Amino acid sequence: MIPTRLTRTILLEILKIFVVSLVVLTTIILLIAVARELIRKGLGPMAVLQLLPFAIPISLQHAVPATALFSVCCVYGRMAADGEVSTVKSSGISPLRLLQPAIIFAALLSPVAVYCSDTAVSWGKPGVKRVVLLSVEDIAYKVLEAQHSFTSDHGFSIHVRDVIDRRMISPTVIVRGKSDDAFEVTASEGQLLMDEERQALVLKLVDSKVVRGEGLQGIVPGESTFEIPLGNALDDEDIANVRPSELPLRLISRERSRQSERTHAAIGQLAAFTGFALLKSRPEEIGGTQASGIHSSLVASERRLTRLQTEPWRRWAEGFTCFFFVIVGAPLAILAKTSDYWTTFGMCFLPIILIYYPLYLFGLDEAKNGDLPPYGVWAGNVVLAGIGSILMVRVRRY
After folding, report:
1. Do residues 395 and 95 lie in contact, with contact meaning Cβ atoms separated by under 8 Å?
2. Which of 99, 112, 158, 334 has the lowest CB atom count within 10 Å?
């Protein structure tokens, strides 16, 4: 009965500190992230309010592991400093029993962290992009009024002589992209309008001159309209060009199968091209431009397939850092015997930064390059598990 009551008491203490700390740290990260986006993009107040819900899972993604470590460091550091660990051991209870609540807490929290990470990717980041996308009209006008020049991440730039009552005076608009889509247009004046339904920025220009491609140009007197597509929403039918790190887990398996089919198709295409070149007695074509293009497509397809295979392992490894942080932090806090929360947290977090993150980044890079299997991203977690096991043996002898 006593061990059960003790386990419940410790678990409640961990949960109380965790909830309070998570709210504080998430709020700090949220304010920093929104402030950065506000400064960098020039978002208005309404856009910032729309941005907040989408930024919450992104903030939780980074806050949960650190908060889990902080909460167990606080509880076990105080217990060791107050002599409670020695008292429990003298009553015949193993000190390892004290660590069970932390292990249970971390084991239950880790899948939640994985879910937060997946939500941040599948809902949070696309939502942030969508808010910024739909605010591009206001952002452009604010920057043009202040600097008379605006360059967008969506592949276009605008230069004006002045802006009066949301009218651009002598605007020059340059749209970058494929040769067929790229153009440059100048006008005496113009306006910007956001078409939310089409996710496009509409230019209404007066007396414009358009230059397309290789010197193809024309003069359009009067009012004319040009459209700049801005759509970047995640679409199940158009995910072949989306980075694996931006795909939700529910789509990765299906996209991995599709990418495997694309890779095999590229291999077959390259083999067929090489075979026909040999049959036609034109071996020089094997190293030609067309063959190089097919080979480049094959290499890119194989690289994306490798990253698609690595991404689920990475997502789960990141989520379970909560578990392995706690496995190291809880016994280390007992051995440190200090009730100073920040000292205990620093003693636990500094070694984790120096050991875990370099190993994690090394495993991730090697796995993405195909030099390690996908589960190589767990290298840092495995090392933390080993260190935690050693610390637990020392706690047992406490």
Report:
1. yes
2. 112
